[in-house]
Design goal:
Distance between the termini: 10 Å
Low-confidence stretches: none
Number of helices: 5
Helix content: over 70%
Oligomer: single chain
Largest sheet: none
Shape: elongated
Mean pLDDT: 96
Number of domains: 1
Structural class: mainly alpha
Length: about 120
């Protein structure tokens, strides 16, 4: 249990913190202005944060499972693709993705997944 739940929980905390810092402190104004330009309100209610927490947990669980079958770099690449590239495709398709933010989001999201993978691999 200690080699399963603890790594997943710590990776979940890391992913959640990374997402929170990036989207609330680094790019909140950018997101807000982008949504205003679309005549929308940027969703930042507590329920939205809770959903991101669930997303973080599911991503950590997926990383745990995938890391058992693949090596470090393969796990990072696969989980970054599944966790972020597919999300950006959906958000872009909905017309609410500010494409300029990808210049920052791509390396930060790779770092986020990489550290989550390392947490899980070291503790499980």
């Amino acid at each position: 249990m200690k080699k399963t739940i603890l790594p997943v929980l710590l990776a979940t905390v890391w992913i959640s913190l990374s997402e929170f810092v990036r989207n609330e402190f680094m790019f909140k104004q950018y997101w807000t202005e982008h949504y205003e330009s679309l005549e929308l309100v940027f969703p930042s209610e507590p329920v939205n944060g809770a959903v991101w927490g669930i997303w973080s947990l599911f991503l950590a669980i997926a990383i745990f499972i995938v890391s058992k079958k693949f090596g470090l770099w393969q796990t990072i690449a696969l989980m970054w693709f599944v966790g972020f590239v597919l999300m950006w495709l959906v958000v872009g398709n909905m017309g609410v993705l500010p494409y300029d933010i990808l210049f920052y989001a791509v390396p930060l999201s790779i770092l986020e997944v990489g550290i989550a993978v390392l947490i899980i691999r070291k503790l499980s």
